[in-house]
TrEMBL record:
Belongs to the drug/metabolite transporter (DMT) superfamily. Small multidrug resistance (SMR) (TC 2.A.7.1) family. Mmr subfamily. Keywords: Antibiotic resistance, Cell membrane, Membrane, Transmembrane, Transmembrane helix, Transport. This is Multidrug efflux SMR transporter. It comes from the Bacteria. It comes from Nocardia acididurans.
């Protein structure tokens, strides 16, 4: 169940990051409310996952996969560019997450 909680926390993390951009510096009410709720949801579900997972593994996967999702959706929603250095960085993050999972087993 911890991995399910972590997956939900990652979705909240992505929503939080994308929502932060939509707030325009927290000057827009509803995107700001959405962003704050997403942040709270992410922290809450991450805390549920960390009842079982090691904090180093859970937090690293949460931020790493969340960052990858944010960059991909940022490209789709905000037309941000995905460059070769970004792709190489994604690969490094994924490799690190896989190694953390293997090391925690």
């Amino acid at each position: 169940m911890a991995w399910v909680y972590l997956g939900v926390a990652i979705l909240f993390e992505i929503a939080f990051a994308l929502g932060t951009n939509a707030t325009k510096g927290f000057t827009r009410l509803w995107p700001s409310v959405f962003t704050l709720l997403a942040a709270a949801g992410g922290i809450f579900t991450l805390s549920l996952a960390l009842r079982t997972l090691d904090v180093g593994v859970g937090y690293t996967i949460w931020t790493g996969v969340g960052a990858i999702g944010t960059v991909i959706l940022g490209a789709l929603i905000y037309q941000e560019k995905i460059t070769v250095p970004k792709v190489v960085s994604f690969a490094a993050i994924i490799a690190g997450a896989v190694l953390l999972k293997v090391a925690a087993a």
